[in-house]
Amino acid sequence: MPTVVTQSPEETEQLGEILGRQAQAGSVFGLTGDLGAGKTAFVRGFARGVGSTRRVHSPTFALLHEYPGGRHPVFHLDLYRLNSPDDIRAAGLDEYLESPDGITLAEWIERWNPAPGGHIRHIHFRCVDEHRREITHDE
Ligand code: ADP
Ligand code: MG
Q1: How far is the CA of 89 from the centre of ligand 1 (A)?
Q2: Domains in the chain, CATH or no CATH each
């Protein structure tokens, strides 16, 4: 599991952009880490790497944002305000976590409580200090 420490939001975006360039349709990335750890910054770069020029927002007040225009649609979920897998299903978001017609990045994937060993690739974000973020990912 490679771990990188980024020194700025731009560096976190660059890491997202690299993974976004390689991402295949049907992929699901589960992002974990506290508020302010850089999950949304990562998604901003990732969407750019997939080729979308749509601006990335923090989805805190919307459960789902879609960024079209790239090689594949990018779906950006924030599950923070949903408490359980049942709530996620009731909101109609389960299809984005199971078999997206594009690429899904889900902040607060803990809420979905996926079975270990499933298809979701986890990326963990940790604040080291004001400017540094430790990011650990599957590949
Ligand atoms: P999250 O989505 O995890 O809540 P955001 O990406 O919205 O986090 O916010 C990260 C915050 O941390 C931003 O205010 C950003 O400017 C700041 N920041 C400082 N250093 C970094 C870094 N290395 N990577 C990402 N964000 C950083
Ligand atoms: Mg966020």
Answers
A1: 29
A2: 3-137 (3.40.50.300)
CA–CA separation, 94 and 73 (whole Å): 17
Answer whether 6 contacts ligand 1 (Cβ < 6 A): yes
**One-character DSSP codes across 77-137:** EE-TT--SHHHHHHTT-HHHHHS-SSEEEEETGGGT-PPTTSSPEEEEEEE-SSS-EEEEE
Q: How far apart are CA 97 and CA 126, in angstroms?
A: 23
Residues pairing with 35 in the sheet: none
With a 6 A CB cut-off, is 81 part of the ligand 1 pocket? no
Ligand 1 pocket member 28 (CB < 6 A): no
Predicted TM-score (pTM) of the model is 0.95
The tens digit of pLDDT for each residue in 26-83 reads 999 999 999 999 999 999 999 999 999 988 887 667 899 999 999 999 999 999 999 9
Kindly give the number of the ligand 1 atom that is closest to the alpha carbon of 6: 23
